[in-house]
Amino acid sequence: xxxxxxxxxxxxxxxxxxxxxxxxxxxxxxxxxxxxxxxxxxxxxxxxxxxxxxxxxxxxxxxxxxxxxxxxxxxxxxxxxxxxxxxxxxxxxxxxxxxxxxxxxxxxxxxxxxxxxxxxxxxxxxxxxxxxxxxxxxxxxxxxxxxxxxxxxxxxxxxxxxxxxxxxxxxxxxxxxxxxxxxxxxxxxxxxxxxxxxxxxxxxxxxxxxxxxxxxxxxxxxxxxxxxxxxxxxxxxxxxxxxxxxxxxxxxxxxxxxxxxxxxxxxxxxxxxxxxxxxxxxxxxxxxxxxxxxxxxxxxxxxxxxxxxxxxxxxxxxxxx
Length: 321
Description:
The chain has helices spanning 11-20, 58-62, 83-91, 100-119, 122-130, 137-143, 159-168, 196-202, 222-227, 245-253, 295-312, and strands spanning 2-7, 25-33, 51-54, 69-72, 96-97, 151-155, 174-178, 189-190, 205-208, 233-236, 259-262, 282-284. By secondary structure, it is α/β, with parallel strands linked by helices. Helix 1 packs parallel to helix 11.
């Protein structure tokens, strides 16, 4: 098969890809992409390919007649989450898969680290060390909490949400989830639209894992933040544009929320002068939740596993269309 790729990998991962595809024809795009939030540039060579791996230009995914499968090098697929593309790919029985499994573990562990760090007052102690170097014994010791028995409401219950729920299980936390389509095997309580307000008001931790699309942009607005439990913690490891950041800022400044931990923002990078940087109860990481040292070889191995499944006629991993 002719396989097209426009993703930049490190040398070992590139070598792994080339060697593993020795029985196929690998076309490396003339213009590779390193920004996963932007589509790749159109590449004439894609018209000859049967398989696309990376971030192909949207208009080219719609056009080629030889294309049999599109595999994205990202967990999210915002750029391709469009009704016209869904209809086109479904009409031609072309699967669209993502690399969600590659990033699920690091993202879930990142949220767990945020929760544990806040409960044990670790960020506040780091601030003390970098500023006053005061020995804030009473403040840090008696403001520390346990995760045990706390309630968590997860928005977006895909691969990341499932792993996060598994990581939280040993703490005996009450985990509930909100998701667009139930599958029946979630293993946690699903919250219906009718019960959402009550669930928001009861949760100690609210985790946003939502993808960005027309239905989720600005989803977390003033009404939802205002409806959260006073002192609750909000985490965003989904997409920045799913949150009304002005409303979040106002809620934090009013001390209605106990804290916010943001790995994604709008825009990215977040400008140094943005007020969210200065809010004492807001903690920001630079879109690194999915980070892992072996990312590139993991992406290649995930693609190769899906390729083997395609060739064997088996269900593919992380299929979204």
